[in-house]
Design goal:
Elements lengths: L3 E3 L6 H10 L2 H4 L1 E2 L4 E2 L2 E2 L15 E2 L5 E2 L7 E4 L1 E2 L5 H4 L2 E4 L2 E4 H4 L5 E2 L5 H8 L5 E10 L13 H9 L2 E9 L4 E6 L2 E6 L5 E4 L5 E3 L6 E9 L4
Antiparallel strand pairs: 1-16, 2-7, 3-4, 5-6, 7-12, 8-11, 9-10, 12-18, 13-16, 13-18, 14-15, 14-17
Length: 226
């Protein structure tokens, strides 16, 4: 399966955008960046992508190093009441290493109270067996999406094989492009061409510079298996 695969699905992008801006979503978001080694993301030590040394990142000691550019922020629209790790976290340190929170808690989550109704209605149209983590991946200009990996290849393979889904709603692309690497080849996607897609986030990926808010909603859960 290709890491990026368009999904035929329609929704009102402007309506979702307005709802999220009205709820000040960027003020609710949490910084999502990575450690740098020798001036590069730890996920791009081979130098395949452009050097983003001017983007906010962590140094080798996990201190925040501010740059000229912002990068990703995240926010969870769903959670499991009583499990704090699902409130704001994207990743959890486990005995098997760092894992996405939607892999660790691969079960039904509940919507947070302030989630816009239209967003909930959109997600329900996918008719999943259950919805787990629904999260914002956003950028506010000036911003470049830092090179990173969300999950291990084997973990994602198992997740998808067991019915897991990874759906992206493209609310606004911000004028940037998604870039990802397979082997030694870099692929670039003009996100303005698509409203919805599947993306395997186990491959190294980033975005080019964005010039207006980039808002994407990632939906995880489980499809019905015949």
């Amino acid at each position: 399966m290709e890491p990026f695969r368009p999904i035929e699905f329609d929704f009102n992008q402007q309506c979702v955008y307005d709802d999220l801006i009205d709820m000040n979503i960027f003020d609710k978001g949490f910084l999502a960046t990575v450690n740098y080694n020798d001036g590069r993301s730890k996920w791009d030590q081979g130098g395949y992508f452009n050097e983003y040394s001017d983007v906010i990142h962590y140094d080798e000691d996990h201190n925040i190093i501010k740059g000229s550019y912002n990068t990703f922020v995240t926010y969870n629209f769903t959670h499991i009441p009583g499990i704090d790790e699902t409130e704001d976290n994207s990743f959890i340190n486990t005995s098997d290493g760092r894992k996405p929170v939607w892999h660790v808690y691969d079960e039904a989550w509940e919507w947070k109270k302030d989630t816009p109704e239209y967003l909930k209605n959109i997600v329900s149209e996918f008719n999943l067996e259950y919805v787990s983590c629904v999260r914002l991946v956003g950028q506010s200009p000036p911003s470049k999406g830092i090179v990173h990996v969300d999950a291990g290849y084997k973990d994602n393979f198992k997740y998808y094989k067991n019915g897991g889904v990874s759906i992206t709603l493209n609310v606004s692309d911000g004028g940037g492009h998604l870039q990802y690497r397979v082997g030694e080849e870099i692929f670039e996607v003009d996100e303005s061409m698509y409203k919805c897609w599947h993306f395997d986030d186990s491959v190294p990926h980033c975005t080019t510079e964005i010039y207006s808010p980039r808002i994407q909603i990632r939906i995880f859960g489980k499809r019905f298996i015949d």
